[in-house]
Design brief:
Number of helices: 17
Order of helices and strands: EEHHHHHHHHHHHHEEHEEHEHHH
Shape: elongated
Largest sheet: 5 strands, mixed
Oligomer: single chain
Distance between the termini: 53 Å
Number of strands: 7
Structural class: alpha/beta
Mean pLDDT: 88
Length: 464
């Protein structure tokens, strides 16, 4: 019997089946291509049957010039789309990439069918090679599929994909310049109005939010997350808020497209937070161990992120930034560079999931992130990780700020766990009381007390 291991469409057996074979990549490309042309063509045909269609355009768009040569970067997205499948060397990466492209396609086409728009202008005649490219485009791209721009939605997904593949500063610089050119080209080729661009970008960012790559820590952690009754309840209220903002968007469309874009942004961001709580996973926000949230997710959730930061400042405006709970251990709100400089902390344990790190990435300042959802008890493993991270930072660096949005909930639970561990306490309420002596405004729900007690009991059981 031969000892040679053969690779087939299931991947390389010696690599745990993770390798995506050429045949699998080609099959995914062919399937997505067939889906693109069939659904895009169908939506065009259906729109053509509905007679005159509305146009959403701003008055200032008349100043946008028609630049024929930008049809080249416009067309280049097709090549980049096809090549991206060849660069997916792992099966899971390939499947995640397909999911992202698929959700952009499905949402955009659904909008084209339910709410078709038309381009409100006549493109000038173009000759030569550029004219041939425009004629080829006009053969299947009718002026109906406008908002959200499918071109921009796919651009966002592909931009993020190729940015992760870039390894040098020069390649990244060229990449960003070319992809930015593709984004501008949808306007300078007179294919889309401005309204189509942010709506298309929102769909692309949503795809990146819904399907984080599984090879990232937050991707695998999100897959293992389990929601609680409390997180589902909070998700419900966020969904109510998102629905109210969505209704406002529909009402505003008749009056102001600009205001509708703003309320629509708020609606989508709030809906994403509802989804994160419904899943019960802090890693839905994709905050990594350096406290960074991917740019696309930051843009998508910007209204919520800004609201969370402002809220943290409003609620703590008459209170100190942080309070000392034990020698070298402080609890407080999420800090800025100014807060760190003023108090001269040596380290920060960040427990927020919904906000990016507001401090600089400085080698002289220790930073650890253990993201947790606000108002929801964390998992036992997450609490364990946070407590031991605090212990390590305190041991190695000295003064540690344990922060959450307000410094009253998640940080209190973590420090109470640390005190219980250091003092050998067996009662969670006693540990919390010790924190409350320093921070009387500390909040700890019955669910958090129960979680902390379970953690203390399990920790003591391991020590026996």
């Amino acid at each position: 019997m031969s000892n040679v291991i053969h690779a087939d469409d299931r991947g390389i057996a010696g690599d745990g089946g993770y390798y995506a074979s050429f045949g699998l990549r080609l099959a995914c490309l062919a399937g997505m291509g067939a889906l693109f042309f069939s659904t895009y063509g169908l939506s065009n045909w259906l729109a053509s049957l509905r007679g005159p269609l509305p146009t959403i355009a701003f008055d200032w768009e008349h100043a946008i010039p028609f630049v024929p040569w930008t049809i080249v970067p416009y067309w280049s997205i097709d090549l980049l789309y096809a090549l991206s499948f060849g660069l997916c060397t792992k099966r899971q990466e390939l499947f995640d990439h397909v999911k992202r492209l698929l959700i952009v396609q499905m949402i955009s086409v659904a909008c084209f069918m339910l709410w078709p728009l038309s381009f409100g202008g006549q493109r000038p005649d173009t000759s030569g090679v550029m004219g041939e490219l425009f004629s080829l485009l006009a053969g299947f791209d009718k002026p109906y599929n406008q908002a959200p721009s499918l071109h921009i939605g796919l651009l966002v997904v592909l931009w993020a994909f190729y940015a992760e593949k870039s390894r040098t500063a020069m390649s990244r610089g060229f990449l960003h310049l070319w992809f930015a050119g593709i984004g501008v080209s949808v306007l300078t080729t007179w294919q889309h109005h401005f309204f189509d661009v942010p709506t298309g970008a929102a769909v692309g960012c949503l795809a990146l939010f819904l399907f984080p790559l599984r090879n990232e820590p937050y991707g695998s952690a999100l897959a293992d997350s389990k929601p609680s009754a409390r997180s589902r309840q909070i998700a419900f209220w966020y969904a109510i808020g998102a629905s109210a903002a969505a209704i406002s968007t529909l009402l505003l469309m008749r009056w102001s497209a600009a205001f509708a874009l703003c309320t629509g942004w708020i609606a989508l961001a709030t809906a994403c937070v509802a989804w994160a709580y419904w899943r019960g996973g802090p890693y839905a926000f994709q905050k990594n161990d350096r406290g960074q949230i991917p740019l696309a997710v930051r843009l998508l959730l910007a209204p919520v992120i800004a609201g969370a930061f402002v809220n943290s400042r409003i609620w703590t405006r008459t209170q100190p930034d942080a309070v000392k709970v034990a020698p070298g251990v402080y609890v407080g709100r999420t800090p800025t560079n100014r807060d760190i400089r003023r108090h001269r902390y040596a380290a920060n344990l960040d427990l927020t999931a919904e906000m990016p790190r507001w401090t600089r990435d400085d080698a002289s300042f220790a930073y650890v992130c253990v993201p947790q959802l606000d108002l929801v008890p964390s998992s036992l493993s997450c609490l364990h990780e946070a407590v031991h991270a605090l212990d390590r930072l305190h041991r190695e660096h000295g003064d540690v700020l344990v922060s959450c949005a307000l410094g009253l909930g998640r940080s209190v639970r973590c420090v109470a766990g640390w005190i219980a561990m250091k003092e050998g306490l067996s009662d969670a309420r006693e540990a919390i009381l010790m924190v409350r002596r320093a921070q009387p405004r500390a909040v700890c729900s019955e669910e958090s007390v129960a979680l902390l007690q379970t953690w203390i009991d399990s920790t003591r059981a391991l020590e026996v």
